[in-house]
Structure formats: structure tokens, C-alpha cells
Amino acid sequence: MPRTSHKPRKRFGQNFLKNQIIIDDIIRVIAPRADDLMVEIGPGLGALTTPLARLLTTLHVIELDRDIVAQLREQHAGGRLVIHEGDALKFDFASLGNNLRVVGNLPYNISTPLLFHLTAHIGSLRDIHAMLQKEVVERMVAAPDTPAYGRLSVALQYRFDMEKVLDVGPEAFYPQPKVDSAVIRMTPRLSIEPRAHDEAVFARVVTAAFSQRRKTLRNTLRNMLEREDFEALNINPAARAETLSVSDFVRITNRLHERPPAA
Ligand code: SAM
User: Does the C-beta of 32 come closer than 6 Å to ligand 1?
Assistant: First the structure.
């Protein structure tokens, strides 16, 4: 358990890692090298921060909780830590430079918007190692035709190669969360093929298709695709979104790009 009087705050998603074996495992899968450009989201009481800072020349951290920031400033005064006080959801990750490695035991209440925020900075990223709810990790890596496959899977698999690298039980944390956790590694895909001509349209197609999981594509995409579009794409209008691959969604997007949307 961390040696501090800090009382964990639920509103900041504070579940601190306390199991040294798990902490060592996480550092091992991250495999930091001294000159890596790395930023940790939510250092908290330093479970990952301290071992990472020992291995790196510089470590950036972003923390929202002012009390924790004050503690970090005291404990790491004059050290290798660059502390950014504020909200990771608003942080300009590109401002730190290129080839950035992002790590964090993320506050679970904001993990999905945070992943989308990071996606917006993908051009500056080398990789992400994130502790998330296991159920979210399973949705991220899910294959088509499985119950976990959905908007999150398609949106992130389009841009990242992803693998689950560790399973972590609730007992590794203080206080214990009610759910299982897992660490995911996300690496921006070097070549995206096929590529969506318009990413905003891609996002709209994926959101619409999964808006009502049990409905057919004819229904969910009725404002976008005509019968002849389904034919040209060789996609069954009576199928559901969960049967489509990531490249099917890209093909739909690019079909829309080629001609004005139906009235
Ligand atoms: N890294 C520590 C660990 O593993 O023990 C703490 C992890 S705890 C799950 C999440 C941390 O993120 C907390 O320190 C919390 O204060 C911080 N946090 C919560 N919301 C945040 C936000 N929007 N931006 C930056 N940090 C945030």
C-alpha cells in the first residue's frame, strides 16, 4: 500500500497500484529506454512513476489532482520529472514532441474519451501502454461477429495495432475496483490499407451502423446508402454492423466520398 496519508478520490478514478509484482510486470512490458520521450497520464502516488523515472532521463507526467501534484513536486524536486498539472483530456500531446510513448493506469471514468483524444494526436505517438477495464480492452481488440465488437473496436483497430499484454485482478489496487483490469499495447499502424478518404465520414458511418446493434444495415445506414450502393459494395443490407470488417467500413466511407449522399 502506498506510504501516504492521501485519501483516494473516487471522482478522479483513483485506484492506486499496490502489487509490486504487477508493477514490475508493467514496467517490463513497457521496456523503457533512457532516452525515450515518455508521458505518464495520472501518476497518482507514483507506483509506476518512481520506477519509470529511475530508468528515464526525463519523464513527463499529467495529473489533475492538485494535492497529488503538490506531493509529486515535493518528492521529485530537482529530479527527472516534468509535471504538467491539468486535465489529460485537454492536454496537447503533440506539444511534447514526436515519437512519444504514452503510459498510464488510466482513470476508468474517462478512459474512452481519453483514447479518442490520444487518437487525435496519433501522428506524434510511438505507442501507448494503458491499464483499462478488462471489458474495455476486450472491446478494443474484438473481432467481427463477436459480442464485444463495436464502434470502439472499429475506430481504434483502423488506426492502431493492439494487443492485450497483461491481465490484472482487482486485488492489485488500493482501493479495489469492482472490475477486472488489463494492460493494452497500442501501436499506430504504419500503413493503413484501405484508407478512409474522409475520417469524419468514417466516424459517422461507424457510429450510425452501431447505433442500434440489432437493426440491419439497411435500417441504420438508410440516410447514407441506397440499394445500388449495397450492391456495388457487395454488402448484404440485411446484415448487421457486427458482421462488417474494418475495411468494409472504409469501403462504405469511400463510396460515400465518391458521390453526394442520398437525399
Ligand atoms: N498511476 C497511479 C497508480 O497506478 O497507482 C494512479 C492511477 S489512478 C487509476 C488514476 C490517476 O489519474 C489518479 O492519480 C488521478 O488523480 C489521475 N486523473 C484522474 N483524472 C485525470 C485527468 N482528467 N487528467 C489527468 N489525470 C487524471
Answer: no
